Amino acid sequence: MKTFYSIFFFISGLIFTFGQEAQIILEKKKLQARRLSSSIKLDGKLDEEVWKTAPIANHFFGFEPDNGKIEPDTLKTEVKILYDDHALYIAATLYDSQPNKILKEITERDNFGTADFFGVFINGFNDGQQEYSFFVSAANGQADCVRTSQQGEDFSWDAIWLSEVKITEQGWQVEMKIPYAAIRFSKSEKQVWGINFFREVRRLRYKYTWNKVDNRIGAFTQQAGLLEGIENIETPTRLFLIPYASYYLNSLPNEKGQGALKGGMDLKYGLTDAFTLDAVLIPDFGQTKFDNKILNLGPFEQVFNENRPFFTEGTDLFNKAGLFYSRRIGGAPSTYPDLSENEEVTEYPSSVKLLNALKVSGRTKGGLGVGVLNAVTEKTDVTVQNTLTNESRSVTVEPIANYNITVLDQRFNQNSSISLVNTNVTRDGEFRDANVSALAFDLNTKKNTYNANGAFKYSYVNEFGDLANKKGFVSELYLAETSGKIRYSIGGNYVSKDFDNNDLGVNFQTNYYSLSGNISYRILQPTQKMNSFRMNLNTYGQFNNNSNNLQEQSLNFNMSVTNKKNHAAGFNVTARMFDVYDYYDARVEGRYTVYPKYYNTSGWISTNYNNKFAFDINPWYGFAEQKGWWFSGVNISPRYRFNDRIMLIYNFNYGVDKNELGWIDRTATDIIYARRDKQTIENGLEGKYSINSRMNFKINFRHYWSFAENKSTYRLLENGKVEDFAYTTNKNSNLNLWNFDLSYSWWFAPGSQMSVLYRNNAADFNRTIDKNFSNNVKAIVNHEVLNHAFSISVRYFIDYNQAKHLVIKS
Known about the structure:
Elements: H1 2-18, E1 30-32, E2 34-35, H2 49-53, E3 61-64, E4 77-83, E5 87-95, E6 117-123, E7 130-137, E8 142-148, E9 152-154, E10 162-168, E11 171-179, E12 190-201, E13 206-209, E14 225-231, E15 239-251, E16 258-270, E17 275-281, H3 309-312, E18 343-345, E19 354-363, E20 368-377, E21 380-386, E22 392-398, E23 401-412, E24 416-427, E25 433-444, E26 450-462, E27 470-481, E28 486-495, E29 512-522, E30 530-544, E31 550-563, E32 568-576, E33 580-582, E34 593-595, E35 598-606, E36 613-624, E37 630-641, E38 646-666, E39 671-692, E40 695-716, E41 722-724, E42 733-749, E43 752-766, H4 773-780, E44 787-795, E45 798-799, H5 800-809
Parallel strand pairs: 1-14, 2-4
Antiparallel strand pairs: 3-13, 4-5, 5-11, 6-7, 6-12, 7-8, 8-9, 10-11, 12-13, 12-14, 15-16, 15-44, 15-45, 16-17, 17-19, 18-21, 19-20, 20-23, 21-22, 23-24, 24-25, 25-26, 26-27, 27-28, 28-29, 29-30, 30-31, 31-32, 32-35, 33-34, 35-36, 36-37, 37-38, 38-39, 39-40, 40-41, 40-42, 42-43, 43-44
């Protein structure tokens, strides 16, 4: 197998090295910006004389579905740019021969909804690597993001800028003011920026760009035009203060409500033209979205999305090499107390308190990106009580801890990068410390037709107490053709037994090597019946390092299509064609479970969201090559847009597994498995009412009920198979969850927000199963078990530049 592995990479290297590139010419349009000598009113009317004489960017190209086709006269677009010492001003006239059909749903920030929109992409260094994108909808909703060639779009990034929109008899108009503090650029006397403009006509699902973006290659950021004419501007002092004040009123079941007042501040400071310091002093994350927890019967923890703004905004640098999982910071304690007989922990916390956090990030003119993130969490103790004597003692389960990640990322050739990443966690005293480093690369040929990416990672863990320290590594390499109708990729990795980055990252499976491959076909231009079509064939195999046993294997085929009415559909077929040796489910080192072949198929339909009523449906069915073991389910999500202000989305999910084999317990001598029936019913509702683009009400609730009932029990044999075993302990599982959020958000000034939130939630896990659905709903939506919370938070954005000007005027 090792010989095969070497031959695999040798052949892959030859394919990559001698592959012929497609002859693609990247054109660069140019637009001259004109200096503004007098003030203008930002109202969307574009009636100032200076707008009438400014140079025009026009003749847009189709991006989707008619890639490269010139825009029709009925939907032509014209853009002009002015500038002064403080900001960039953009005016766009978006013609539409049917202005009464312009879609303009009102939504919250960073949500396009069902609306036409216009966008501008700015790259102040013109290096083809990172763009700052600003979008305005026909309802004057705003969205912004940072786009990189490696990470794609990051909409968690928010900037402070202004826009106004006006619907006219000829279409609609946009006027934007983007302060220089919102973007990054060099100190050059004469600026040359990369720039592109984007438009979507939502009712047609047609997208256009000013500079042609060829969909035969995937390098969107390298296909921008040029903005010239900006001269003698100074990079601003980027100092922003965001103080906040919050009030929380919490009421637990059968307890009197308690109020708490919190205050703190976020700080953003531009250390240089390219580098920014972000700091959270006394953080407040009380209004973040709830997690969609599930009944997790597997050997690995459930991984959640990050909802805290500090850890989502502008973190593309820190995601290099895949070492960073920010939910580790402030997550559950790293240890659990050793208990004597008759002792129990009275209350074990699900998280530890974050004391403060800061990050510094930016990129030099030479393309060197530098990122440093640091966070500190407080010491956390629990009380251990003897149930017989009532004596208690305090035990530290998490000492004061320091989390740090450092990244150096060098970009070159406008489309490639090499990164050096280090994460480390240092805990006070004799607790576990961890240090992980990685060297990663992402290389593209000059014309973006071939890609090679990979990494080498090394971990060192100084274990807690008397446990042995661990050293491990990962090596991985992936090669791909990234242009044309037919594309392919091949790759593999090797993970040593003791690699462990779980103190500040996520990696559950170790001690294996894997091989993977993919080939795909897509149409690049629409046909008479289809706007898009794509199909993929994927294969994956994973092998244990010690035994070379097959741990996981899959062969997958999937296809998707969008028709001329913009309804989409697809299907997926997956087969595991061999028995596999699972080295993780047994939860004992060196033991494994043999699982049989299985087959799964699923389909999906997503109707056009432009319609007032639309729906998504996703059914699935599968079975294993073992008598009676099958699984099926369906997800249905209808949505209805009553008008441009009100939208409701309902989500229903039903799943059933029959005679599934899985781990349930471990005794002193045996590993216990069971044949079990599982059932999951999930109901959710999302709704919004938008007064305007800056004032929104939202409702979000979720009820989740899932149970697993053990039918027969077994013990695991040394050969990975199971045999009948008498086991009487009740290890059934019944999880009942309820979450309800009702919120109001008002952006009362640029960057300043007031949020009001009412929340109630409840969770119940037990070993007794009640299969009556209504009984489970009544049990969880019950005042005796519900936790209630009401909060008001006000954040005010202070721009040093504006504050300075106000002081000077006064």
